[in-house]
């Protein structure tokens, strides 16, 4: 049996409204938001008396989703928002963008900062990492030349 698709990536945030505004500015579309609680939620997460508000955002092509969560209970137990790029574990989400300069200018208005610098990989991509809301690490990639959707830049 094979995986059918990757459904979404989840990020826990403290300020759900600010995170939604940031990712909408990036170009994602808000599908909806809702409170989540109850026995089924406690059982799936292993967190008794869990209460969370989630927002689901979709990429413009409709193929990928980002789930933002703000926990009301229990309290958040760890904070990885300022972890460097070489930290172990889940670290970042990367988005393909049409115009990296325009994207950076728009996101700077929402306090995004470039982690290192914008670089060019061969004649294939312009790339950078930014810190978004609450220090979330986000990768941005602008494909140069031929715009193949899943072209391997390492070939």
Task: Tell me briefly what this model is.
The chain is an alpha+beta fold and 155 residues long. Helices cover 17% and strands 34% of the residues. The chain has helices at 16-26, 39-45, 100-108, and strands at residues 9-12, 29-37, 51-58, 65-73, 93-96, 113-114, 119-121, 125-131, 137-143.
List keywords for this structure.
five-stranded mixed sheet; 3 helices; 155 residues; alpha+beta; four-stranded mixed sheet
- What is the helical fraction, as a range of percent? 10-25%
| Alpha carbon gap, first and last residue | 28 Å
Relative strand content? 25-35%
Q: How is the biggest beta sheet arranged?
A: 5 strands, mixed
Mean residue pLDDT: 89
Total strand segments: 9
Shape: globular
Folded structure, characterized:
By secondary structure, this protein is an alpha+beta fold. The strands form two sheets. Strands 5, 6, 7, 8 and 9 form a five-stranded mixed beta sheet that branches. Strand 7 and strand 8 form a beta hairpin. Helix content is 17%, strand content 34%. The mean pLDDT is 89. The protein is built from three helices and nine strands.
Layout: helices, strands, pairs:
Blueprint: E1 9-12, H1 16-26, E2 29-37, H2 39-45, E3 51-58, E4 65-73, E5 93-96, H3 100-108, E6 113-114, E7 119-121, E8 125-131, E9 137-143
Parallel strand pairs: 1-4, 5-9
Antiparallel strand pairs: 2-3, 3-4, 6-8, 7-8, 8-9
């Amino acid at each position: 049996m094979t995986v059918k698709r990757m459904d979404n990536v989840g990020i826990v945030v403290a300020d759900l409204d600010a995170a939604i505004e940031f990712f909408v500015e990036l170009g994602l579309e808000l599908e909806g938001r809702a409170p989540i609680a109850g026995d089924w939620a406690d059982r799936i997460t292993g967190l008794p008396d869990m209460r969370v508000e989630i927002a689901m955002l979709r990429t413009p092509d409709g193929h990928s989703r980002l789930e933002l969560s703000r926990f009301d209970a229990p309290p958040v137990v760890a904070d990885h928002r300022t972890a460097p790029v070489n930290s172990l574990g889940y670290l970042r989400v990367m988005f393909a963008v049409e115009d990296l300069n325009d994207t950076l200018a728009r996101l700077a208005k929402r306090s995004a900062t470039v982690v290192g610098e914008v670089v060019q990989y061969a004649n294939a991509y312009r790339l950078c990492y930014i810190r978004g809301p609450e220090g979330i690490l986000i990768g941005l990639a602008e494909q140069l030349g031929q715009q193949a959707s899943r072209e391997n830049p390492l070939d």
